[in-house]
Each structure stands twice: as C-alpha cells, then as structure tokens.
Amino acid sequence: MTISTQITPVKWEDDVLVLLDQTRLPVETIYLHLTTAEEVWGAIRRLEVRGAPAIGMAAAYGLYLGIRDSEAQTYEQFWQELNRQADYLGTSRPTAVNLFWALDRIKARVEKEKDAALSIAELKAAVLNEALAIQAEDAEVCRTIGEHLLTLLQDGMGVLTHCNPGALATAAYGTATAPFYLAKERGWNLKVYADETRPVLQGARLTAYELQRAGIDVTLICDNMAAMVMAQGKVQAVVVGTDRVAANGDVANKIGTYGVAVLAKAHGIPFYVAAPLSSVDLATPTGADIPIEERPAEEITHGLGKQVAPDGIKVYNPAFDVTPAAYITAIVTETGIFKPEEIAKSKQ
Ligand code: MRU
C-alpha cells in the first residue's frame, strides 16, 4: 500500500511553476502559478514554498523561468545570464543550502556543455531537464532516508518531530517524516508528536495537517510541552530535518530544534537528523559558519493573526538554530546512517 494522500507542494505543469501556498494551509488550499524568476524569489522569501528540498526545487524551476526568454546568441552570453539569475535567486533565503546546491547543480550541467556547441534552445532545455531531475530524484532520496530511519525505530514507538520536514517540504514523503509514511504502509503504529514550532507554526499548520490527512497518528503539542512529554515517557525517539549540515556534524534546522536536542539528551532519548545529501555542506566547516536567517519582527508580534506584543517592542527572530554534533545520535542520509562527526563519509 502506498500513501496516496500525500501532497505535492511543487509542480511543473504546462510550462508554469505551480506552488501550493503553504502560508494559507491548513485552512485554504490555494495554488500559485508562477512564470518569472522574480515571482519565485518572492514565493521563497514569503515562505509560500518552504522547507529545504522544496526551496531547492522551486529555485531550480525559477532559474529556468529566469533564462527561458533569454535572447543570448552565444554560450558566453547565456552563461552570464544564467549566473546573474542564479545569484539573484540565491538572495531569497540564506540558510537552506539546498537552494545553492540546486542552482550550482544546474550551472554545472550547463558548464558541461561548454564545448558541445549546443544551441541556446538546447541549453535552455538542459536547464529545465536538470530542474525536473532534481525533483524526481528527491522523492527517491526521501524514501530511501525513510527506509534507513525505519531501522532505528520500532512499531509502537512515540516519535517527536519539530517544524515541517514533511511531504510539504520535499517532492514526496518528507525527510524526517518519511519513516512515518513507510511505517503506515507497513501497518505499524507510530505515535507522532508534532511540536507546533513557534513563531510561524510549521508544525501545527503543516506537519499536523499532512500527517493527519494521511491517517498517521499525530498529536500536536506546543513547543514548551516537549520536556513534559519526554518526562512522561511518551517519546522514544526524536527525528528532525535540516537546512544544512556542516562538515563537523553540526546541524542547522528550524529555531527550537537545539532545545529539543538538549531535552532529548537529558532524557536519554536518541536524536536523529534526516538529511538528504543536498543538505550536507562539507564546504561549511562548523555550525558557527552557517548563515542564520533573521525574519521580520511581525512573525512574533503579530504571529497568530493579531497583535500579541506591545507596539515598538524590541524583537529578535532568528529562523534557525544550530544543534551541536554532540547532541545528535545519528544523521541519516540516502547513503546510510552516520555518526555526526563522520558525516563526510556520507558523500564518499
Ligand atoms: O523556514 P522553513 O519553514 O523553510 O524551515 C524549514 C525547516 O527548518 C525544516 O525542518 C527543514 O527545511 C527540513 S525540510 C525537509
């Protein structure tokens, strides 16, 4: 049995990028139809598409949209335009390395054709095909990560997750949620606890929504309830996604993840990170080198649709934090299960 209720957040249909607007979930299901790189940039910045792999996929299609009407006559002109568009899309959000990975992968594909004397139309087609390949591969990658993670879990376990590392953040299955979907396929009963994930509530609006929709046993908790739930013995494992894994095994993920990792260690609960290789960035030495996005104060002061803080209050709103490798039991990629300090082996 496969789970047919999964949602597809990113679609390429009739030469248009169709995005499920994740800012409107769970109340409204609205699809955005994007035809320019500028629209894709805005959708990424506004979190209409979000989650590291989905951001990468959207940026890849955005790059194609940015060059599809190019009037370049030579490879050199096309290459310059491609780089300009890639640099522009790269300014949409800083933390998820999948964005840069996808743009670099497309550039590498075009560079490979440098001496092949392809027409400009053929180069444009190569860009689109690479974007399509990135999306197609992501579904397989997530499923494989799920298979590996499932070997670390058991039927009947309680598993806590943070943010949305789900189908909504990927081509299918999600990364950290993949074992939940696979467990469901196998008739296991996992009990998932989803942190609501302040301030933007990806856990409440997205993870709770997609897992409930798929018939997975999911219980929503506020972020400040995780310690209690662990102390009560309801959770036997934590599985989260990531926006970037540094070479030393430090992991950036949605703000609050670090706190969950500290709690898990205090309660002797294993803490697993699901990371496609597109999120593993060996060029970034440590977590301290990962750029952390800061988002508008309104996400906190007006985060629940109404003003919840005084006018003019000072706000600090980092969108991500870094969990040091020492708090991570294992990082699970499509190539296997790795100790954080051995994450470089995942790419060998
Ligand atoms: O700000 P967001 O919603 O893009 O943050 C998303 C996360 O932090 C996810 O946990 C991460 O991208 C992993 S998605 C498989």
UniProtKB/TrEMBL annotation:
A single MF term (Gene Ontology): S-methyl-5-thioribose-1-phosphate isomerase activity
Alphabetical keyword list: Amino-acid biosynthesis, Isomerase, Methionine biosynthesis
Sequence positions that bind substrate: 50-52, 93, 202, 253-254
Pfam family, one: IF-2B
Active-site feature positions: 243
Top-level lineage group: Bacteria
Keyword Mitochondrion found: no
Known EC number: 5.3.1.23
Pathway recorded for this protein: Amino-acid biosynthesis; L-methionine biosynthesis via salvage pathway; L-methionine from S-methyl-5-thio-alpha-D-ribose 1-phosphate: step 1/6
Functional note: Catalyzes the interconversion of methylthioribose-1-phosphate (MTR-1-P) into methylthioribulose-1-phosphate (MTRu-1-P).
Cross-referenced PANTHER family: METHYLTHIORIBOSE-1-PHOSPHATE ISOMERASE
Protein's UniProt name: Methylthioribose-1-phosphate isomerase
Organism (species): Brevibacillus gelatini
